[in-house]
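Encoded backbone
================
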Amino acid sequence: MGLPITRKEISNRHIKTSQYYLEPLYNLLRERLLTQPLLHADETSYRVLESDSQLTYYWTFLSGKAEKQGITLYYHVLIDLFISYFNPL
């Protein structure tokens, strides 16, 4: 078809669709995960492609091994390094 669709447009559509369809399920799983007595977490950061001024962070939260139904949740944040540099908290 030759439609001129940019990477940004594809990414934005993916995000909006995920929010609409998957956010209620994510919130339910998060509520259940927070009631468990033991949680595991990991934080990973890396630079955004084609950008020297932005970092992206991923957090992973997992239920303990003793749980009957395991839950794994991911949380993602994009941070502009120049905003925090020029506007310190």
Notes: The chain has a mean pLDDT of 83. The first strand starts at residue 39 and ends at 47.
